[in-house]
Amino acid sequence: MEHIIKHFNIFLASVRMEVMDRLNDIHIGLLIMVTIFVQIFLSVVFFQALYGQTESIAGWSLSEAYILLGTWHIVGDISWALFVRGFIRMNYYVTSGSLDMMLRLPMDVRSILRYRNIDIFLHIPPLVVGIMILFYGISNSSGPVHWPIYLCLLLCAIVTYYSLTVMLSSVTFYVPNLSINYIRNQVLELGQYPIAIYKGLAKLLLTFIIPLGFMFTVPARALTGNITWIEFVQALSVTVLFYYVSDRVWRRGLARYESALG
Amino acid sequence: MEKSAKEISVKNLVKDFEYHEKPEGLRGSLKALFKREKKTKHAVRDISFTVRRGEFVGFIGPNGAGKTTTLKMLSGILTPTSGQARVAGHVPWEREDRFKKKIAIVLGQKSQLWNTLPPLETYNLMRLIYDIPEKTYRRRLKRLVELLDVEDKLHVQARKLSMGQRMKCELILALLHDPQVLFLDEPTIGLDVLSQRKIRDFLTSHNKEKGTTIILTSHNMDDVEDLCRRLVIIDEGVIGYDGTLEKIKSDYGEYRYLSARFGDKVSRDALAKIGEVLEYSGIEARLRVPTGDTPSRVNKLTSQFDVKDIGLQDVDLEEIVSDIFSKSKQK
Fold this sequence. Notes:
The complex is a heterodimer.
Chain A: H1 2-24, H2 26-53, E1 56-57, E2 60-61, H3 62-88, H4 90-96, H5 99-103, H6 109-116, H7 120-139, H8 147-174, H9 181-189, H10 200-209, H11 212-224, H12 229-255
Antiparallel strand pairs in A: 1-2
Helix pairs in contact in A: 2-3, 2-7, 3-6, 3-7, 3-8, 3-11, 8-11, 8-12, 11-12
Chain B: E1 6-21, H1 25-34, E2 37-52, E3 56-60, H2 67-74, E4 82-87, H3 97-100, E5 103-107, H4 119-129, H5 134-148, H6 163-175, E6 181-185, H7 193-210, E7 213-217, H8 221-227, E8 230-235, E9 238-244, H9 245-252, E10 255-262, H10 268-272, E11 276-280, E12 284-290, H11 294-304, E13 307-314, H12 317-330
Parallel strand pairs in B: 3-7, 3-8, 5-6, 6-7
Antiparallel strand pairs in B: 1-2, 1-4, 8-9, 10-12, 10-13, 11-12
């Protein structure tokens, strides 16, 4: 319990510092926020255009697609708000040796990366828009809504997002000059579409190797009424498995850390 | 606390870094695509030493000697290739939180402060990370701020601080959790003389008051002479000397400097019979004389010339150290 309270206090202090930091350069923050809103707007326009041609894609109606899109935004924005920024800066931290200063602190360096780079200020507004898209989808959908299951799967999706981010940033320990952030972002973009639209190898890849299906499609199905217990259990298992693997990969990578020579 | 207890013990510590060498030019780059020459840099080669609790040790050597690498291994940042070390009762590279709470490291060229926020905000975050009770934190902060004279800088954005002010704030940050062992890597680099003096005074009093074990690396020999009673000289990853400051001066200080001002103009040739003339202006001169024969040389000088003023100076540490480095290179 003490441990949780400590982390909660550090989290609050980090949020406070991040907000103060953002307010120092408010114009940059607002510019980034506008970019995020444009991206959301373009996604909605794209879905409207697509569903202007047909009533359903791979069994998903427009309102169901909005539930998926809302889920994708909620998971993405919470992840960005809480931890992504720290891990995508790993390249810089490793090549400049800045990770040294994090390693000396009496806390897991992943926690330091998360707290040092919290980004709540920028991601709360888009998160609200994501929730609005989700509720718009639900209000036009007729299926039964399973909120407890959805919230549980949403948590699993955020944990898996975290595991994937940690795993990919661990590559930096092996190849310090390689930035795979662009590829990471491009692959995660695919999660806003139902996994059913992919076939064969691509579907297999996006289900088990990069488990976008379990991260976005399965939680959305809890609100469209199509989820099965098997999918629910599979999603939980994938979450545990990915968390375990990411922890191993991170620890192995960190043991190789050689700082910047000096 | 028992002062003679070993705080740091290092045995046969080795750190190798692997790197690739690429031949020159575009052809070299293309060739490297298929065949890369793997090389090993032996940053630290089989070093052993111990440091007693409360000692203030100077760890000196030229660039690339292995000082910072050793400090990084002892603070748990780097894992050694082989060898053993214990710092404050822990194996550093196991990176236990209990160990991290007992040590602190200040790297002169790397900041730990949150750049865009005032130092006070970073201090408050560290209070939570290190589990420092609020009252203790306030008391320690007050003491450190007063000693380092930065009361008016706590609310200024870290990036707006001068280098001296910043280093003082970095020191406060490192000492808030009252570490048993403090590693300092070039803490006065780039600072003006006044700031250097202030930081040296502070470190001396902190070491005395708190009994903190301190290892300092610095290229600034004034730092080392003022602060450290013991020196470990490292070059190319090997310890070349380990002993007290006095001993190194008596072992290696074969000469002393004799400065004199004369009533009348004296000849350079006459002075050369007393010692090696380093500087000469007719009525002023600076000579180098053997340490063991200094009294008789002084006698000769005062009896043969009309000496108005005389000064005697030991050979400075910088010269001794560079002498040791060049001897080790010749070997």
